[in-house]
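Narrative summary of target 7.
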Amino acid sequence: MTTTCVRAMALRDTAAAVPAAGREEPAPKVVTARRPLRTVAALGVLVLLAMAANALVTNPAWEWDVVAMYLFAPSVLRSVLLTLELTALGIGLGFALGTLLALMRLSANRLLASVAWGYVWLFRSVPLILQLLFWYNLALLYPRLSFGVPFGPAFFDVGTMDLIGPVTAAALGLALHQAAYAAEIVRGGLLSVDPGQRLAAAALGVPRARRFFRIILPQAMRTIVPNAGNEIVSLVKGTSVVYIMALPELFYQVQVIYNRNGRVMALLLVATVWYLVLTTTLSVGQHFLERHYGRGRS
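Modeled conformation, tokenized:
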């Protein structure tokens, strides 16, 4: 084959590859990648969910009619209210004290920082159930509590049992225990803020309190809220520990009922449903708080 023929064939192939002027090329066809293993896994999970739902609905041992009967019983509702009260006291007092401890740990004063570190170390090391028992039995150590001048005369005293009842002891134990974890959450949130923000605000002459509440804290809340939400949800379930003090919170109350009528699984389901409702409600609130403080973040 001559060189001229070869060149002619090359020009013909090139002309065929280049579309004619004014002619539109067809749109590329999108082909979805096939993942058969993912489909099989999804079908397997769906079958397992269907089996679990069928076991819950068709097995008469779950006694759903008993669950419906006790779900809104007055004694159960009162126990749910007490659970919410203990949670609110533990979280409110715990995070108030925890914020103070976090500021102490960040202080340049070594005494304040050391005391705060010691508090966090002690209350994170001792199990919650032991702390509750300690406060519940405080009268064994100090039958009466006096108030007056430190290391001086007392103005008046009061019986420890009269001052610290079971509910007070439970709230005190939960709050002091929670404060140790809240302190680390708040401290981590404050440390997550760029130090340049503090320096810039100080250079502009922004007062210290305004600098903290309007510049540093809103940014720190982006880190604080998710961890604080986890602690709140954990404390809702952690209130069940106060059953050792014979307080009629949710878990203790269902125990009282099923010890009386023998419907163990049904009453445990009642507690489960209420814990699911409470934790789900708190999780929804956490979601909106995170979205609020996450505004402006790319």
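DSSP finds twelve helices and two strands in the chain.
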